[in-house]
Amino acid sequence: MEFPSNIKYHPEHTWARVEGDTAIIGITEYAQDQLGEILFVDLPDKGKKIKQGEVFGSVESAKVASDLFTPVSGEVIEVNTELSDSPELVNESPYEKGWMLKVKMDDVKELEKLMDSSSYKKSL
Questions:
Q1: Looking at the chain, which runs of residues are DSSP E strands?
Q2: What does CATH list as the number for 8-107?
Q3: If pLDDT is split at 50, 70 and 90, which confidence band does 57 have?
């Protein structure tokens, strides 16, 4: 199982990869593995404000529907529209093609509340 060191992890199995003042957000490989085949992804619209620790959307698999928790606060500036037609990208490539949102962060200090890869791995 992959735990990239260039991203920060939320305890509820979402991640944030920072590029400048933007966070790219998705779910971890562990989360997609636990869920099984992803059938549907429900994401917020561009322009929506989201807050760290709150639900920003959901994923549905053959096993269960699961809420997605926001690793950082900010404004959604882009949504991965490919997931509408190809939700399986979350399973195939959770850290690259299966990303979900790009968020202009309100406060980069929120990243300090997230885990690094070794802490996240230990938490499992």
A1: 8-9, 14-19, 22-27, 38-42, 49-50, 55-61, 65-69, 74-79, 101-105
A2: 2.40.50.100
A3: very high
